[in-house]
Design brief:
The structure is a single chain. With 236 residues, the protein is α+β, with helices and mostly antiparallel strands. The chain contains 5 helices and 10 strands. The strands form 2 sheets. It has an 8-stranded mixed β-sheet with strand order 2-9-8-5-6-7-3-4, covered by helices on one side. The chain has a two-stranded antiparallel sheet with strand order 1-10. Helix 2 links the parallel strand 5 and strand 6. The longest helix is centred in the N-terminal third of the chain and has 19 residues. The radius of gyration is 24 Å and the shape is globular. The N and C termini lie far apart (69 Å).
């Protein structure tokens, strides 16, 4: 009886042993260090060039129809932007405010980017890999960059983060739009904002039309904000 029981149990023991042991060849290959992997993000060389209208059928962003509630260059400044006489983004005639005078490095290297020279229309998202709502909304920004290609630029600003953390999120979430680096939170200080994520909606005239700090944005919310503040209709 004991021998039959031992013979019955032996195959189970061998199966368990086969799942928990093995040679080094069976172990997954460790991921190379971030510094040794190519950046998932695009370079920043074209950020100072205004978006060029895509060919028919290549994008889904179009100018919003009159009366749709979209912002125009003469619309009042958003309540989220700095008022004349206050610190922060410089107020401009016609409403809105200029981007802060900051120079940020690009994640991929190359010439640093003068933030004020980023050509609009643009959506600038400030995020970090350690911020859960930032991670939640990043895929929606990637989809926006694809749907509105040629109509607006989507730009990331990675804030107070490690290079490896930012790169891993870009790789895992398929984020490809250009990425600036702001390790010292200079942009947040200029905007007098402590929390992230932050999203800036910048018009074709370079004025900040709206700063959103409502939490993780999804496709529908992004489309609504782009229509309201930049005057572009983007599919959600």
């Amino acid at each position: 009886m004991n021998r039959r029981l031992a013979l019955a149990v032996l195959p189970l023991l061998l199966a368990v042993t086969g799942c928990t042991s093995g040679t080094a060849d069976d172990e997954p290959t460790p991921r190379p260090a971030a510094a040794d992997r190519p950046s998932p993000f695009r370079d920043c060389s074209a950020l100072s060039t205004a978006p060029t209208a895509a060919s028919p059928g290549s994008g889904s962003a179009t100018p919003a129809s009159p009366g749709s509630g979209s912002a125009t260059s003469a619309s009042p400044a958003s309540p989220d932007t700095a008022a004349p006489g206050t610190s922060g983004p410089t107020a401009r005639a016609g409403g809105g405010s200029a981007l802060p005078e900051l120079t940020l490095s690009c994640f991929t290297g190359g010439t640093p980017v003068v933030l004020r020279n980023v050509a609009g229309p643009a959506v600038i998202n400030v995020w970090a890999s350690w911020c859960p709502p930032c991670r939640k909304e990043l895929p929606a920004f990637q989809r926006l960059s694809e749907r509105a290609a040629g109509q607006l630029q989507v730009v990331g600003v990675n804030s107070r983060d490690s290079r490896s953390g930012a790169q891993s999120i870009g790789e895992d979430f398929g984020v490809r739009f250009p990425m600036l680096v702001d390790q010292g939170e200079a942009l947040q200080r200029e905007l007098k904002r402590n929390a992230i994520p932050l999203t800036l909606f910048v018009g074709a005239d370079g004025q900040v039309r709206h700063i959103d700090a409502s939490g993780a944005l999804d496709d529908a919310k992004l489309a609504k904000l782009v229509r309201q503040h930049l005057g572009l209709a983007v599919s959600a």
